[in-house]
Amino acid sequence: MDIPKDFADSTRLLMGDALYETLVGGLNDEPSVSLRLNPFKTDGRPVGQVTPVPWCDGAYWLESRPNFTFDPLLHAGCYYVQEAASMFLHHVLSRVIDRPVTALDLCAAPGGKSTTARGVLPQGSLLICNEPIRQRAQILSENIQKYGHPDVMVTNNYPRDFRKAGLLFDLIVADVPCSGEGMFRKDAGAIAEWSRQNVENCYRLQREIIEDIWPCLRPGGILVYSTCTFNEQENEDNIAWIRGLGADVLDIDISEEWNITGALKGEDSLYRFIPGRSRSEGLCMAVLRKSDDTVLAERRAKDSGKPAKTRPRTDVGAWINGSDHFTLCERGDTLSAIPTWWLAQYRAAEKSLHLLHAGITLGTVKGKDVVPHQSLALSTALNRSAFAQAEVGYGQAIAYLRKEAITLDAATPRGIVLITYHGIPLGFAKNLGNRANNLYPPEWRIKSTHLPEQIPTILNI
Question: Is this prediction's pTM over 0.70?
Answer without folding.
Answer: yes
